[in-house]
Amino acid sequence: MNYDSSIKMMGISQTFGDKTVLKNIDLTLGKGEIFGLLGPSGAGKTTLIKILTGQLVQTGGSAEVLGTDTRKLTSSIYTKMGMVLDNTGLYERLSCRDNLALFAQIYRLPKGKIREILKDVGLLEAEKRPVNKLSKGMRQRIVMARALMHDPEILFLDEPGSALDPSTVNEIHALIRREQEKGATVFLTTHNMEEAAKLCDHVALLHEGKIVEYGNPEEICRKYNHQNRIRILLKNGREVTLQNESDAADKIREFFASEQVESIHSTEPNLETVFLELTGRRFE
Ligand SMILES: Nc1ncnc2c1ncn2[C@@H]1O[C@H](COP(=O)(O)OP(=O)(O)OP(=O)(O)O)[C@@H](O)[C@H]1O
Asked: What are phi and psi of 97, to 5 degrees?
């Protein structure tokens, strides 16, 4: 099938009773990009993932995944999708290896693929351990292994780094980037702005069911850099803030010449402050 975008949403809306959770969402994901849907708790992120993965039929608009309407996803499309959602669906008393073996059968993968993916996610040594004896970080890695083992074209990740320690988060990010290098498109949700800024090619900020900003994280931050200032920390502990204009360079040169500079920072906002500016709400 020919399609020019991996995921396309056209006026997606969702209501539950009299509550409108998503309002007219238009978004397009190009092939091979990492996209992050950002919003505070209850913003509607999981609802959108459910619609895109065919688990929920929207009340308005339409969406396509790999050129197919999400209301008509077939098993051949599902085999091109990998998902890490809240309900992990792991068999708690089965070992890591046996959990993956079940999925390898469904996807008709060669046996060697199980050891290969266990190695990739750093769980080869724990292959015989039952899932209910895994740490939280190991659990997330086995869930990732299951989602990645059939080399999906599209990966849906609902809060992939949530409640994990920083080193596990870094490992999960490395796995996500590796999938991108292999050509996969990644749709992830997060309420962690730092995670999104590090990982994503594009993000959309979701507030009360609407996209309030969309773009590359760095470009968004630059766009909201109204103050355009430079903050200089001096070795004596003093802090100097300069307007980022031509005469700032002379001042900075002077500070350097007299070896006073400890560090220099831009005062560019981060995604969190942009969201606050747009919505008057903090992320929590
Ligand atoms: N099946 C449902 N019936 C009624 N309301 C629902 C249903 N599913 C979700 N909601 C409501 O829709 C809103 C958005 O929920 P959703 O789970 O999509 O948010 P979220 O952004 O993923 O939040 P979190 O980060 O906490 O998971 C919430 O107010 C939730 O209570």
From this structure: -60, -45
Domain ranges of the chain: 81-151, 226-267
| C-alpha 21 – ligand 1 centre gap (Å) | 7
How far is ligand 1, taken at its centre, from the CA of residue 264, in Å? 42
Residues whose CB falls within 8 Å of the CB of residue 160, separated by 6 or more in sequence, listed in order = 84, 140, 144, 172, 176, 188, 190
Quote ipTM for the complex: 0.96
What lines the ligand 1 site, CB under 6 Å? 16, 21, 39, 41-47, 191
**pLDDT tens digits, residue range 198-248?**
899 999 999 989 999 999 999 998 888 877 777 788 888 888 877 777 777
Strand order in the sheet with 261-266: 239-243, 229-234, 261-266
Q: In whole angstroms, give the CA distance from residue 88 to residue 117.
A: 18
CA distance 187 to 37: 8
Ligand 1: which residue has its CA nearest to atom 31?
42
Q: Distance, CA 148 to ligand 1 centroid (Å)?
A: 26
